[in-house]
Design brief:
Elements: H1 3-28, H2 35-48, H3 54-83, E1 91-93, H4 103-114, E2 122-124, H5 127-175, H6 185-208, H7 224-239, H8 244-268, H9 275-285
Helix pairs in contact: 1-3, 2-3, 3-4, 3-5, 5-6, 5-7, 6-8, 7-8, 7-9, 8-9
Length: 297
């Protein structure tokens, strides 16, 4: 192998390692995302903020598709560069199949191996290349499984966040301007403790699945950024209550909201000395567009 072949192999190995590291940090590392995933998600999010309404609601799903495409592209190109120095001599071709030694041929072999299709008209001819091709097939199967798992894990987290927003809206509509004071103290305390547990769950979801932050809800009723400040108001009112159970529930909800604010501050850069200030920044970044009739969309 000449110097150019060494450079191609090292570059290909670097791309493969970048893909593996990004998948690991995004899907398996508890509190993080890989650099490729983070760049794509944040980039499309910032771009979508220029367009209110429908464009912003599809930005995050499109970004997830782009991330999966980037992982596949890194893997295909990385393995192709590993194969390239060995073309065509290192591979056996069926009769009538033209032999090429260019990058396009290497990419084709890489795509066939990654997808585990295995047409068989071009196969590795040396033990080392056979091992490399088999390793890529295992990587391709793992990548497919990982991306499916990523999607299946992301949407339940979004459902929990939307459910919390709906619960807060229902509480506000049912209790009216008096809030928790409109209810029997024990009942109000139970509801606030339930809200505290749900807020804690959303905090954990944001840490474990950073990409869920970038999803913009189509309807304001399901938007946590638009309703979380009300939870802060409930917690403050409950802490000023004369009922011990309600005060405890208020402190519990307040602590859960502080944890959520810390996640938003530390992971997503929302400034604010208080939790309420952080939530206001959170709401401003996810604000729904106002239609001409004054309703949000």
């Amino acid at each position: 192998m000449d110097f150019a072949g060494i450079v191609e192999t090292v570059t290909g190995a670097g791309l493969i390692l970048l893909m593996v590291a990004d998948v690991f940090h995004t899907l398996f590392y508890p509190h993080g995302t890989g650099p490729v995933c983070r760049t794509i998600m944040r980039g499309l999010w910032l771009l979508s903020r220029r367009f209110r309404g429908h464009a912003s609601t599809v930005a995050a799903p499109a970004a997830m598709a782009a991330v999966i495409g980037a992982w596949a592209s890194l893997s295909i190109m990385g393995w192709a560069l590993v194969y390239l120095p060995h073309l065509p001599a290192g591979f056996a071709y069926e009769d009538g199949v033209p032999q090429y030694g260019d990058l396009a041929e290497a990419i084709y072999i890489s795509m066939v191996s990654l997808s585990t299709v295995g047409y068989g008209e071009i196969v590795p001819a040396t033990p080392l290349l056979r091992f490399v091709a088999a390793s890529q097939a295992v990587t391709g199967f793992g990548l497919l499984t990982a991306t499916v798992s990523w999607i299946l894990q992301t949407y339940p987290a979004l459902s929990r966040r939307r459910a919390l927003a709906h619960d807060l809206n229902l509480f506000r509509e049912a209790a009216g301007p008096r809030g928790a004071a409109a209810l029997e103290p024990r009942h109000a305390a139970d509801l606030l403790e339930s809200l505290a547990r749900n807020v804690a769950t959303v905090s954990i979801d944001l840490l474990a699945f950073n990409e869920t932050y970038y999803f913009h809800e189509a309807e304001q009723r399901g938007s946590l950024p638009a309703t979380i400040a009300y939870a802060q108001q409930l917690a403050s009112d409950a802490q000023n209550s004369t009922n011990a159970d309600l005060r405890f529930a208020g402190r519990m909800l307040h602590a859960a909201l502080d944890d959520l604010a810390e996640v938003l501050r530390g992971k997503f850069g929302h400034a604010g000395l208080t939790s309420l200030a952080v939530f206001q920044s959170y709401e401003a970044h996810h604000r729904h567009r106002q239609n001409p009739d004054g309703t949000a969309s």
